[in-house]
Amino acid sequence: MRILSVVVTRFPWLFIVLFLGITGAFATQLVHVQIDPEVKNQLPDDMPARLDTSTIESHFGGSEMVLVVVQAPDVLDEGVLERLHGISEGLEELDFVDRVLSPFTLTRIEGNEHGEMVVQPAIDLDALPSTARERDALAESLKRNELVYGNVVAPDFSAISAIAMLGTEATDAITMESVAAVIEANPGPGEVEIGGNPDVRTHLSQDIRGDFRRFLPVGLGIVLGFLFVCFRQLRGVILPFSVVVMSVIVAMALIPLLGWKIQMVTVTLPVILLAVANDYGIHLMARYQEENVPGKQRDKGRLARVVLLDLGPPVAAAGITTMAGLLCLTTHIVVPGRQLGVLAAAGVGFALLCSLFFIPAVLAVMPVPKPLASLADESGPRGLERLLERVARMVAGNPWRVIAAVALFSLGSATGFAWLTVDTNPVNYYAADAPVAQTTSLLNEAFGGSTELSVLFEGDILDPDMMARIDALERDLAASEDVGFTSSIAGVVRMMAEAAGGEAERLPDERNEISQLFMLYSMGGDPEDFERMVDFEYEHALLTARINTLSTQRTSAVVDLAKSTVGEDGNVVVGGFGAVFADLVDAVVEGQVVSLALSLLLVFVLVAITFRSPGAGLYAVVPLLMAIPVLFGLMGHLSIELNVVTAMLSSIMVGVGVDYTLHFLWRYRAERREGLEPVEAVVRTLTTAGRGIVFNALSVIVGFSVLLISNFLPVQFFGFLVVVSIGACLVGALVLLPSMVLVFRPEFLEP
After folding, report:
1. Are both 679 and 594 inside the same structural domain?
2. Fewer Cβ atoms within 10 A, N terminus or C terminus of the chain?
3. Are residues 713 and 631 in the same domain?
4. Shortest CA distance to 274 belongs to which of 240, 234, 301?
5. Nearest to 301 by CA among 227, 362, 231
6. Rounded to a whole number, what is the largest CA-CA distance in the chain?
7. What contacts 434, CB < 8 A, 6 or more positions away?
């Protein structure tokens, strides 16, 4: 570090130009950054639910759908039906729409007085009701039609819909723009709402952009104000702030360079760097002001060299441990979580290099400022320094009580683990009164649900045993209170059999009888009416169930019911977004546990290497172990779910929180080596290095508070929880850790 400090301060302009040039080169890539709101892309390509969903789509086309819902006091009003028919026809003309399900395209299968099957549209455009009697007759007909009632017509007749089944080539932007154009071209009575995953993703994409537009200017303004309050000198503001800006540019530019896109998790990247990237510069500037006092004043080059020589090792160690904690996010199965770990670690790494090279180089060319009044006052510490001295005296007088109080509080907080839940449904990213949430609620109440579970059966679909298996699973799913609507070819066969003079609710027990029913249907209807239920060769059948809850746990229960019913049959595949959400639950929990354990292990090893003592690693980890129950217990008590965003918390907390313990241990050891007794060494450490530690922690807290203005609830909760967790880490460094070193007198800190 001595050689480095000499080289940096002797050739400062070389390093200044070098870092500015690197930042400028990366900045040219920012125009290529793109946004990806697709939920499935959060999962790796080889994840079972995603593979199963792709298998289903290969046989029956895309599983995506857009619902155009018309609400009215009575949707069987002639004007409402005419408007819906126009919308239905307009959707059918779109190139990316495979099929439209509406009361005008779905059929009514009934028997006549001769015992013959009659196939007609569920609603005939040429026979729309014009009188109350005709309206009531149509309503009774729709109630008897399992293909329509609860599917495209709400049970209370307050809403009616046309469902566009999308092909795999459909894109969200074009889809939503085209659907909006169809609605505009068909005015009429009733209020129109658009629902479905493409609509949710469109809102996600728009709101991600909105977050970016707010986060950066607001965050940069907050950081500037905070730095000025801390240092009250221009260089104390500009230098750490410039490091923040440079690290954000480099990290964001890596997104297109690595072929990645921004997702909802990644939206936190600039805020993480706004909060963390200036930490190392804060410590350097705090020490710079500490050295720039009467009796210690040196020339600009020597002052910069002394600061880098004294703080270079702990700053480097703190930066490396933070990077290690962030890189532990790469163990997450959630793809954007992995990417966030790499990008944030890269940004922190560049910020660390800027702090060790760029900041000392700039200090070496700037004139030495006037000493800060609060530090130059010979009458004793003032302000923050006086508060820190009081904390140190309190800790020194009651170390055992402090340890016991912290332990009890941590254990008490841990009781919230019992109420901690996991959530992966993207609709829950929004408040209940948001348009997306309200539309989804409408779909859940009126049309059976907004989340679809798909089950693919392979084999001889016309075989009675196969048909009975499909029917049994459909009945089991329909019996669940969380399933609002089901459809399968087995249900259609039951309807056809009854219309052809058979017993109600009975499936034929002969293959030829089933085959004959389809032949009879083709005489009055189109065989393609069932293309979303069975293929042309009758070798694959699709059962779909709409889940009417936003709870991921209850969605997972429905998926588990389907999987347990079909068993280990290799000819049955369970997929769809319901299965994706369920798999994502396991992914979130597994990623949380693995990344947390690995980050703690890496911190232990790196701190042990830094101090050349396993005990140092233990002392660095203990305060973090006390903060973890506080974090997750609070989530349970406040009903904050663990999701793809909040699952990133623990690794970030460990990576950032270890900085405070490391700086305390480094300075305390230095003071002990100078001959101070343990109590005075604690006081001296907290009133000197403690100032930088507090500034560092407050910088993180203030920076992450920007997330509270996010469009997404998980991101807001993430910001709140970071404030809590970093506050807990700060208490651990300023209160718990000093108490521990006073009580146990670890050998690695002794002179």
Report:
1. yes
2. C
3. yes
4. 240
5. 362
6. 112
7. none
Sign of CA dihedral 327, 333, 337, 342: positive
Q: At what angle do helices 737-744 and 678-704 cross, to 10 degrees?
A: 160
Domain boundary among 531, 550, 569: 550
d(CA 244, CA 271): 10
Buried b (16+ CB within 10 A) or exposed e, 145-159: bbbbbbbbbbeebeb
> 282 and 342 share a domain?
yes
Residues 287 and 209 occupy one common structural domain: yes
Q: Say if residue 239 is in the same domain as residue 349.
A: yes
pLDDT tens readout for residues 642-655: 887 787 777 788 88
CA–CA dist 280, 320 (Å, integer): 11
104-157 pLDDT per residue, tens: 999 888 887 777 788 889 999 888 998 899 999 999 999 989 889 999 999 999
Rounded to an integer, what distance in angstroms lies between the CA atom of residue 461 and that of residue 660? 65
- Residue burial 332-344, b: 16+ Cβ < 10 Å; e: rest: bbbbbbbbbbbbb
Q: Where are the alpha helices (DSSP H) in 418-528?
A: 435-446, 464-478, 489-499, 511-524
Q: How many domains does the chain have?
A: 3
Q: Please, are residues 240 and 696 in contact by the beta-carbon 8 Å criterion?
A: no
Cα 248 to Cα 242: distance, rounded to the nearest angstrom: 10
Whose tokens are 């003071």? That residue is: 671
**Host domain of residue 215:** 2-39+201-425+582-749
Cα(198)–Cα(735) distance, integer angstroms: 51
